[in-house]
Design brief:
The complex is a heterodimer of chains A (229) and B (802).
Chain A lengths: L1 E12 L2 E13 L4 E5 L6 H9 L6 E6 L2 E2 L5 H11 E4 L11 H12 L4 H15 L14 H12 L6 E5 L7 H16 L3 E5 L11 E6 L2 E2 L5 E2 L3
Parallel strand pairs in A: 3-8, 3-9, 6-7, 7-8
Antiparallel strand pairs in A: 1-2, 1-4, 4-5, 9-10, 9-11
Chain B lengths: L1 H10 L1 H37 L6 E4 L5 H8 L4 E16 L5 E8 L11 E5 L7 E5 L2 H5 L6 E6 L5 E10 L6 H4 L2 E6 H7 L7 E6 L6 H17 L6 E3 L9 H36 L1 H9 L4 H42 L10 H26 L4 H6 L12 H8 L5 H10 L3 H38 L4 E10 H9 L4 E14 L22 E6 L9 E5 L9 E5 H6 L8 E6 L2 E12 L6 E5 H8 L4 E9 L4 H17 L4 E6 H44 L1 H9 L4 H43 L9 H28 L2 H6 L2
Parallel strand pairs in B: 3-8, 5-7, 13-18, 15-17
Antiparallel strand pairs in B: 1-9, 1-10, 2-3, 2-6, 2-9, 4-7, 5-8, 6-7, 11-19, 11-20, 12-13, 12-16, 12-19, 14-17, 15-18, 16-17
Classes of the chains: A alpha/beta (229), B alpha+beta (802).
Chain lengths: 229, 802
C-alpha cells in the first residue's frame, strides 16, 4: 500500500542544510496498523508528511497505492489527499467556526465524492460510529479534548480514505482517552484501513501490527517489530 | 530597543507598509485642504487688498468736479474716485446677446481705488474700444481684436473694438454669473449714446480701514456732504472691509474640508490600532520574557509607542509632499472658480507644524489602548500563553447564533463565520470602509437634494424667460411686441425695483450670501406682479400669498424674512422705495431656497399709489419650446419686435441660464465629497487589506489543515477572498443604513454654511447600487493579495505555524 524508496529530505536552515530523513526505505501493507516511534527531531513527522503528500522528498520516491505522489501538482495533490488520506493531528485542528458535523462534511465538500444531500447523513453516521453523535451540532470550543479528537477521526474518515495518518494523536489527551483513541485506530485497521501513527507511546503491544523506529532521520535497521495481533 | 523596533518592522514589513501608506493618504488629504485654506485665505485677501478696494460706494446723480473735490477734502477719506456702472447687452458676431455690466472709468491711467489689472491687449482703451474681464471673454465668445456690438438702455447698437482684457479681482467669476463685465471710458459711453457722466463715488477711508463701524460713521458724514450739495444718495454699499467678497465663504468651506481631512487622518489611525493589537497579541511571550528580565511596563510600552511614532513619521514624509501637490491643484481649481491669481503656493509654516503634530499624535493616540493593554499582562500569564487566543469562537451567544446558521456550502459558512472572529478588528475596519461609502452616498444624495430643492424652487416659476426692459414702458406697447413674437404662450408685465428697510443710517456691512442669503445694504429686489399671476406660484411657508384686492400687502421670501429677525406674517415693515417710504403689512413668507432677498407686492396697488398705471419694466414669458436654441430664437425675435415698438430689452435670463450658477456651486460640493469618498475609500481598502493580511497570518495553521483535508489552493484563495468580500458587503450595509440621516445632516450643514439655506432632502437610490458594486470590488481587491499568499503557503509551512 505504502512504499518509500530511498527517500531523503534536506531542509535549508540558518545553520546550513539539515537532513531530516536519510535514504529511508519502507513498505507498509494495506490494512496494517504501524507506529512510527523515535525521539523529538528524529524525523517521524517528516516521514508522515512524505506519506501524506504534505511535504515532498528531496530524493527518492513515495508511492501510495499505485500513485507516485512526489511529482503531483498542488491541486492534484490536494484532491488526492482528500480522497486517499485521512489526517489526525495532535491538537485536533478542528476548524473552530464549524460545528462537529460541519467539520466532518468539509472534506466531502472539497472532494465531492458524495452528492451534497448525502453528506450530512454520512457525517452523522461517522460521528455515531466514533461515539460522538450527540455532539454533532456543537462548536469545537464546547467539546472536550477526547471528543474533539474523535470528531477529528470522523473527519479523517469522511471520504472513506484507504490510509489514515495520525501525528501524535494522543499527545494532548489523558491516558484513558488515549487508549480509547488507539482502540478506534485498531478497529479501523481491522476494517482494512492502513493506519500509520507517529507516537511517543511505547506500550502498544496488542494494538498495533508494526513499529518502525527512526533515529536522526534513519530507520533503525532490524528494529521493525511485528507485534502479535 | 532600536534593534527590536527595526526587527519587528522587518518581520511585519508588508502590513507596516500598508498602514504607513493608509496614514500617508490621510495626511496627504489633511495637508492638502489645510494648506489650501492657508494659501487661499492669504492670497485671496492679499490679491484683493492689492487692488485698494473701496471702503464703500455711494450712488448719486451726476458727479461733477466740485462734488468730487468737496468729498475728497473730507479728512476721514484717503481717496475718492468716480465711476459708473451701466447695464447693457453685448454680442460678438452671430452669437446671441449676452447680459453686460459696463464699468465706466474716467481715466484708466489714474485708477487708484478698486484697481484693475491689465491682462492682454490695449491699456488704456481708446474711445470706441472696450476691455473685457478675462473670465468673461468665454461668455462673450469673443477674442481680442474682434468687433463687438453693445447696446445700453439709452443707446442704439454700437460697434466697439474689443481691444484688451483685464483682471477685476472684486468681481465674481463671469462664467458662473453668465454675464460679461466690460470697461470703457466716458467718451466711449457718450459714443454709445448714453449721457456721459459718472454717478458712483468709490471712497477709501483714511484710518481704521478694516473697522466697519468706523467706515459706517465716515460714510454717514460723506452722505451728508453729498446731500448738502444737492445730490441725492440713492444707494450705499459697504462691503466687508479688507475681505474679498468670497473670502468668508471660501474660508468656511475650506475649514469644513479641513475638518473632513482630519476625519480621514483619524480613520487611518484605526489601521494602527489593528496592526498593533495583532502585534501585541503575537508578542505576549516576548513581553513576558522582557518583563522577566527586568523590563517595566512603561519601558516595554515605549518600544511599541516608538514604533507608532516611526510609522507616523514615515507617513508624514510620504504624505506631506503629496498633500502639497494636492493643495496646489485644489488652489488652482478654486482660483479659477473665484477668478483670482495665486502669487505664491507656499503654505504657511503653521500648516506644516499642525500636520506634523497631528500626523504624529494620531498613531500615538491610536497605539495607546492596544499597547497599554498588551504590556499590562503579568509575567506568569505572558509566559503561560500558548499563543491560542482567549477569544475562542463559540464562547459568546453571537458565535452560537452564527453557528446556527447553516447552509449547503461549508467553505462559504467558514468565510462568513471567520469574518466575525476578530470583532474589534472587524468593527474598526467597517468604520473606515463604511465612512467612505457614507461620503460617496452623501455626495450623490446631497447632489440629488440640491437638484430637488432647485426643482421645487424653479417649479414655482412658471415662466421660461425673464426680460428686463430698459425703462418703464406702457405695457400695451410691450404686448404688441409680444404678439408679433412667435413662440410665446403666455406673458405678464411686472415691475421690478429695489428697496431697503427704513432703519439705521448707512446700514451694516454687506453680508455676501452666495447665491442668496441675507441682503446687502444695497437693499433687495421688490417685484410688483399681478395678484392673479399665472407665472409664479411661490411656496408659502407662513401666512398666505397675494390676493386680488390686496393693497399694502407684501410677501417676503425666506432670505429676506430671515435677514430681519422677528419678521413674520402679520408684521409691519417700512420700506424705502425710490424717494419715499411706505409701510407694508407682511401677509406671508415664501420659501425660496438659494434665492436672493426678494419681496412681492401687488402690481395693481403699486400702479395705484405710484402712478405707474399700465406700465411694466420687465416681462415674464412662458414659451412653446424651452430648449436653448428655441429660447435664443425667441430672444432675438423679441428684440426686433420691441425695437419696432421703440422699446428696448436690457437683459434677459432664461430658466436654464438662471440654474447654471446654482449647478456650478453644487458641482463644487459634489466634487469635494466624491474626492473625500475616494481618499477614505483608499484608506478603507488598505485597512481591509491589512485586516485580511492579519487574519490570514493568524489562521495559517487552519489553512494548512484545510489543505491537508483536501482543499486546493484555489479553494483556500476563495475562502479568504469571500471573507474579505463579506466584510465589504457588511460595510455597505452599515453605510446604507446610516446614509439617510448622515447625508441629510451633512447636506444641511454644508448648504447652510455656503448658501444659508436648508435642503429638500432626497435619497439617490442608485448610490446604494453603485456603492454596493464598489464595496464588492474593494472587498475582492483587498482580499486578493492576502488570499494569494495564503494559497501559496505549503501545507507543511502552514501546519508548522503556531
Amino acid at each position: 500500500m505504502i512504499s518509500l524508496r530511498g527517500v531523503g529530505k534536506v531542509y535549508d536552515s540558518p545553520a546550513g542544510p539539515f537532513g531530516a530523513l536519510k535514504n529511508v526505505d519502507l513498505e507498509i501493507a494495506a490494512g496494517e496498523f504501524v507506529a512510527i516511534v523515535g525521539k523529538s527531531g528524529s524525523g517521524k513527522s517528516t516521514l508522515l508528511n512524505m506519506v501524506g503528500g504534505i511535504d515532498r522528498p528531496s530524493n527518492g520516491t513515495v508511492t501510495v497505492g499505485d500513485t507516485p505522489i512526489q511529482r503531483m501538482s498542488e491541486n492534484d495533490l490536494a484532491l488526492w489527499r482528500g480522497r486517499t488520506v485521512g489526517f489526525v493531528f495532535q491538537f485536533f485542528q478542528l476548524l473552530p467556526t464549524l460545528t462537529a458535523a460541519e467539520n466532518v462534511m468539509l472534506p466531502m465538500d472539497f472532494c465531492r465524492m458524495l452528492p451534497p444531500r448525502e453528506r450530512r447523513a454520512r457525517a452523522l453516521e461517522l460521528l455515531d460510529r466514533i461515539g460522538v453523535a450527540d455532539q454533532a451540532n456543537k462548536l469545537p470550543a464546547a467539546l472536550s479534548g477526547g471528543q474533539q479528537q474523535r470528531v477529528a477521526i470522523a473527519r479523517a474518515l469522511a471520504n472513506d480514505p484507504p490510509v489514515i495518518l495520525a501525528d501524535e494523536p494522543t499527545g494532548n489527551l489523558d491516558s484513558q482517552t488515549g487508549d480509547a483513541i488507539f482502540r478506534l485506530f485498531r478497529e479501523l485497521a481491522d476494517a482494512r484501513k492502513t493506519v500509520v501513527v507517529v507516537t511517543h507511546e511505547r506500550d502498544l503491544s496488542g494494538i498495533i501490527d508494526d513499529t518502525v523506529e527512526l533515529v536522526d532521520g534513519v530507520v533503525v535497521p532490524g528494529f521493525r517489530v511485528r507485534h502479535a495481533g | 530597543m532600536l534593534g527590536k523596533i527595526l526587527g519587528d518592522f522587518k518581520q511585519e514589513r508588508i502590513r507596516t507598509g500598508l498602514v504607513v501608506l493608509a496614514m500617508a493618504l490621510g495626511i496627504a488629504g489633511f495637508c492638502a485642504v489645510l494648506s489650501a485654506y492657508g494659501i487661499l485665505t492669504r492670497e485671496l485677501n492679499q490679491g484683493y487688498l492689492a487692488t485698494n478696494p473701496a471702503s464703500a460706494t455711494l450712488t448719486t446723480d451726476k458727479i461733477d468736479d466740485a462734488l468730487l473735490a468737496a468729498i475728497a477734502s473730507n479728512r476721514g477719506l484717503s481717496d475718492v474716485e468716480a465711476r459708473r456702472v451701466v447695464s447693457g447687452r453685448i454680442k460678438a458676431g452671430p452669437a446671441q446677446w449676452r447680459n453686460l455690466t459696463l464699468f465706466v472709468v474716467k481715466d484708466f491711467g489714474k485708477i487708484r481705488v478698486s484697481t484693475l489689472q491689465p491682462e492682454h491687449g490695449a491699456w488704456p482703451p481708446a474711445t470706441g474700444e472696450i476691455l473685457i474681464e478675462r473670465d468673461a471673454l468665454q461668455v462673450a465668445r469673443a477674442r481680442i481684436g474682434d468687433m463687438v456690438t453693445v447696446k445700453t438702455a439709452a443707446s442704439q447698437e454700437q460697434a466697439l473694438r474689443l481691444s484688451g482684457s483685464v483682471h477685476d479681482v472684486g468681481q465674481a467669476q463671469a462664467r458662473m454669473e453668465n454675464g460679461v463685465y466690460g470697461y470703457i471710458t466716458v467718451a466711449t459711453l457718450a459714443q454709445l449714446g448714453e449721457q456721459p457722466f459718472l454717478d458712483q463715488l468709490n471712497i477709501l477711508v483714511a484710518q481704521d480701514r478694516f473697522n466697519v463701524d468706523h467706515i459706517r460713521n465716515v460714510v454717514a458724514e460723506v452722505r451728508k456732504s453729498v446731500e448738502s450739495l444737492q445730490h441725492p444718495v440713492r444707494r450705499v454699499s459697504i462691503p466687508q472691509p479688507g475681505k474679498h467678497p468670497h473670502a468668508e465663504i471660501m474660508g468656511l468651506l475650506l475649514l469644513a474640508m479641513s475638518g473632513f481631512g482630519f476625519v480621514v487622518l483619524a480613520l487611518s489611525g484605526i489601521l494602527v490600532v489593528n496592526l498593533l493589537s495583532a502585534l501585541m497579541a503575537s508578542q505576549v511571550g516576548q513581553i513576558g520574557v522582557m518583563k522577566a528580565i527586568g523590563g517595566t511596563r512603561w519601558r516595554i510600552a515605549r518600544i511599541y509607542f516608538a514604533q507608532a511614532l516611526l510609522m507616523g513619521a514615515a507617513a508624514i514624509l510620504i504624505g506631506v509632499p503629496i498633500g502639497v501637490w494636492g493643495s496646489r491643484e485644489l488652489c488652482r481649481y478654486l482660483a479659477v472658480f473665484l477668478n483670482f491669481d495665486i502669487g505664491s503656493f507656499a503654505a504657511p509654516a503653521w500648516v506644516y507644524l499642525l500636520v506634523a503634530v497631528i500626523g504624529l499624535l494620531v498613531p500615538l493616540f491610536a497605539a495607546g489602548y492596544p499597547v497599554w493593554k498588551g504590556t499590562g499582562i503579568s509575567v506568569r500569564e505572558a509566559l503561560a500563553d500558548s499563543g491560542v487566543s482567549s477569544n475562542v469562537f463559540g464562547a459568546s451567544a453571537f458565535d452560537r447564533a452564527l453557528a446556527g446558521m447553516s447552509g449547503p456550502f461549508r467553505p462559504l459558512l467558514l468565510a462568513i463565520r471567520n469574518s466575525f472572529r476578530q470583532r474589534t478588528r472587524l468593527v474598526l475596519t467597517l468604520i473606515t470602509l463604511s465612512a467612505s461609502g457614507l461620503f460617496f452616498m452623501s455626495a450623490l444624495n446631497i447632489r440629488a437634494s440640491m437638484i430637488n430643492t432647485l426643482d421645487r424652487l424653479f417649479s414655482a416659476k412658471k415662466f421660461d424667460l425673464s426680460v428686463s426692459l430698459a425703462s418703464m414702458y406702457p405695457f400695451e406697447k410691450v404686448e404688441r411686441a409680444l404678439r408679433n413674437t412667435p413662440g410665446i404662450v403666455r406673458a405678464e408685465g411686472w415691475i421690478t425695483t429695489r428697496a431697503s428697510f427704513a432703519k439705521g443710517g448707512g446700514g451694516g456691512a454687506a453680508k455676501h450670501g452666495h447665491g442668496g442669503g441675507a441682503p446687502t445694504n444695497d437693499g433687495f429686489v421688490v417685484i410688483a406682479l399681478p395678484t392673479n399671476t399665472k407665472l409664479l406660484t411661490p411656496e408659502i411657508s407662513e401666512g398666505r400669498g397675494l390676493l386680488a384686492g390686496d393693497t399694502d400687502a407684501i410677501v417676503l421670501n425666506s432670505a429676506l424674512a430671515s435677514s430681519e429677525p422677528g419678521t413674520q406674517a402679520g408684521s409691519t415693515v417700512t420700506l424705502i422705495m425710490g424717494p419715499g417710504q411706505m409701510s407694508w403689512r407682511v401677509v406671508g413668507i415664501a420659501r425660496e431656497p438659494f434665492s436672493p432677498a426678494t419681496a412681492y407686492i401687488s402690481k395693481e396697488y403699486l400702479e395705484q399709489v405710484g402712478g405707474h398705471d399700465g406700465m411694466a419694466n420687465s416681462v415674464r414669458l412662458k414659451l412653446e419650446k424651452t430648449d436653448a436654441a428655441s429660447i435664443d430664437s425667441v430672444k432675438a425675435s423679441l428684440d426686433r419686435s420691441l425695437e419696432r415698438e421703440g422699446l428696448r430689452a436690457l437683459a434677459s435670463a432664461s430658466k436654464l441660464e438662471s440654474r447654471f450658477s446654482f449647478d456650478q456651486h453644487m458641482l463644487m460640493i459634489y466634487v469635494f465629497l466624491i474626492v473625500m469618498a475616494g481618499i477614505i475609500g483608499g484608506v478603507g481598502g488598505l485597512g481591509l487589506m491589512t485586516t485580511m493580511s492579519l487574519n490570514v497570518l493568524e489562521r495559517r495553521r487552519e489553512m494548512g489543515v484545510l489543505r491537508a483535508i483536501g482543499a486546493s489552493p484555489r479553494i483556500v484563495w476563495l475562502i479568504v477572498v469571500a471573507e474579505s468580500l463579506i466584510i465589504g458587503v457588511l460595510s455597505w450595509l452599515l453605510a446604507a443604513l446610516v446614509a439617510w440621516p448622515f447625508s441629510r445632516a451633512l447636506g444641511s450643514v454644508l448648504t447652510v454654511l455656503m448658501f444659508r439655506t436648508p435642503l429638500d432632502f432626497s435619497m439617490e437610490l442608485i448610490g446604494l447600487v453603485i456603492w454596493f458594486v464598489v464595496s464588492v470590488s474593494l472587498g475582492i481587491l483587498a482580499g486578493f493579495l492576502p488570499a494569494w499568499r495564503a494559497s501559496k503557503l505549503t501545507v507543511r509551512e502552514a501546519l508548522a505555524n503556531s
